[in-house]
Amino acid sequence: MQRAWKRVKANKGAAGIDGLDIAQTAEYLRWAWPDLRQQLLGGRYRPQPVRRVGIPKSDGSERELGIPTVTDRLIQQALLQVLQPRIDPTFSEHSYGFRPGRRAQDAVLAAQGYAQQGCHVVVDVDLSKFFDRVNHDILIDRLKKRVNDAGVIRLVRAYLNAGIMDGGVVIRRVEGTPQGGPLSPLLANVLLDEVDRELERRGHRFARYADDCNVYVRSHKAGERVMALLRRCYDRLRLKINESKSAVTRVFGRKFLGYALWQTRGGEVRRAVSGQALQAFKWRIRQLTRRSGGRSVTQVVEKLRSYLLGWKGYFRLAQTPRIWRSLDEWLRRRLRALQLKQWRRGKTIHRELLRLGASPWVAQSVAALSRRWWHNSRSAIHNVLTIAYFDRLGVPRLS
């Protein structure tokens, strides 16, 4: 429990429906834990409903999360720490999502390897609202095959049945496992491992990350057969394929975990950031560097830095140096426009540019068009607000 508490604290996160954050939950558990412990051991513990939260996506839609209380996150984390070492070794080697020592980048590298071997057709399957459609009875049945402990099974089912609070009303759940709890990814792998084993039994090359599965074949006809097989497998699990996002198609240019593959004239398969991921990146950068809100460049860079480092870390496998350079140039141009907007008046712009080493002619010409921030950000001030200038501010470079 102490190890689980350290993990919950490190993950931080918002409060659940009880309104208690990490610090408040710590105080609550000082006196409440002995009773909670007896309830857990006696099979009487009943988790609280999760709090529904909508996370905006770059396409305007929302991803729904269910936020358990900190106490329930603690119990789920402790349960995960016991179950994962026992269950994870039984999963397929082609499963990469939410597993110790495995990352999304490993799945992308596997996909690149299959394409390099000549499998240029991909069966790309996207499940429709997977976490909302998980059948509780089927999931518990698959879990019982791996866990022979009635108390653990009872507690897992209690979490599945906990319900969701939305607008002050608790909605009872008869299916689904909410995203946001530590246990949900493990349960997803328990359910989907059955499909992995069927694909393995037939000798297919594939990579799965959570509910995102790609199978690589050599012909469109073979791909159609695999798609028919997957439909039967998912039907048995009462899961639904999203027809608009699933396809049997050429592998090159198809998005997988934010990456896309492309082929050189010499036949080498390389990795790139997908067009959709680039659009999402630019959308987020525009939000962080918008020229309203009364924030200083230093404050903007502080938030920008954490996002850029995370994005760069995830997409570090992309073999597209020219795209990195163009994104760097575009980002710095936005920051230059932001800086000019904050200086606002022509006299201030003139004074600040001279202070930074600009020639009097450059300072005067930019100040004369003081309100054309985006135009000026591409003019001679790139020799004043230089790459080194932004390095000193702490802006990470992508290239």
From TrEMBL:
Residues 36-261 form the Reverse transcriptase domain. One of its GO terms (biological process) is defense response to virus. Its EC number is 2.7.7.49. InterPro entries: DNA/RNA_pol_sf, Group_II_RT_mat, GrpII_Intron_Splice-Mob/Def, Mat_intron_G2, Reverse_transcriptase_msDNA, RT_dom. PROSITE patterns: RT_POL. Keywords: Antiviral defense, Magnesium, Metal-binding, Nucleotidyltransferase, RNA-directed DNA polymerase, Transferase. It catalyses: DNA(n) + a 2'-deoxyribonucleoside 5'-triphosphate = DNA(n+1) + diphosphate. It holds the Pfam family RVT_1. One of its GO terms (molecular function) is metal ion binding. SUPFAM superfamilies: DNA/RNA polymerases. The keyword Cell division does not apply. The keyword Hydrolase does not apply. NCBIfam families: group_II_RT_mat. PANTHER family: NUCLEAR INTRON MATURASE 1, MITOCHONDRIAL-RELATED, PROTEIN YKFC. Belongs to the bacterial reverse transcriptase family. This is RNA-directed DNA polymerase. It comes from Modicisalibacter muralis. The lineage of its organism: Bacteria, Pseudomonadati, Pseudomonadota, Gammaproteobacteria, Oceanospirillales.
